[in-house]
Write a structure and sequence with these properties.
Peroxisomal Thiolase, Chain A, domain 1, acyltransferase, 4-stranded mixed β-sheet, EC 2.3.1.180, 10 helices, alpha/beta, ACP_syn_III_N, 2 domains, Beta-ketoacyl-acyl-carrier-protein synthase III, transferase, globular
Length: about 325
Amino acid sequence: MKIQIQSIEKYLPGTAVHSEELESRMGIAKGWIEKNAGVQIRYWANADETVAAMAATALQKALTSAGLTAENLDMMIYAGASYDYPIPHNAGRIKKALETTAKFPCFDVDSTCLSFLNALDIAHLYFQRDTLRTIAIVSAELSSRALNPNDPKTYGLLGDAAVAVILTQNKEGYEPLAPYFINNPEGADLAWIPTGGSVSRGMVHDTPEESFYFRMDGKRLISLTLRELEPFLDRYEQLSGMTPAAYDFVIPHQTSRFGNEIFAKQYCLNERQLVNTISRYGNCISASIPLGLCDLVHQQNDLSGKKILLIGSAAGLSLGALTLKF
């Protein structure tokens, strides 16, 4: 089975926010954010923008680029952690924002930063049933509204973005190989937003404001990720038959500058191989991996014969990888 990327497009909301501006707001030293997080600029949505609107904009761009309309889709998957309302699911709101009356099925996949990889794997499984021909996946993250301005480690790291990809079964394209995902529940409480769910709805008068913001135990999260990464990649090498260095391109989730540098050094990846977007977008949660794929597809005239590794980690703690063999 081969799958063609008919189109892939991104939408960067609002305007570029430079790290110097955030450093000035927080009263921290100039250059601190780039030194510690690796981010020069990120995009933060305007106050009137929604997750559904961002996703619909990226999806409409992808449909137009492919010469399609929403009526040509057989399925749409929203893959992300951000949402406008707890109910209904985002995919339905995105369809409404597209202003289509088409009744193709749609649903959400949320595994935070690995949402796109999980959705891509699910799309491949649907294609194997040979009942669907065209599937759209869209990841949209509006993380800026859940950031604590008193926490420079997260406030300077995360950005907003939306990416949509249109996939079709075709004689040309890529062959998906060796999907592999694990989860270590030891990391379940290392990155979270305490308030907003069923445990704490935030309805009592003394609910602290900071409990609505994203927080993470960075040191423990990095330590656990590094501990899990080596055996994970050892197993993935057995499944795929390739080391990370054997790929033409490696697109990792953009955890941080430190994460990218450690990964590249440990697995002997050069600057050409590693698709590094952290400096110009920040960590965009589920949109990070598809942003890297989008930029790569637009920069490369022809991916024929290339092997691409998509790999990342997510809150939970989860690790995932998937090979695209063109």
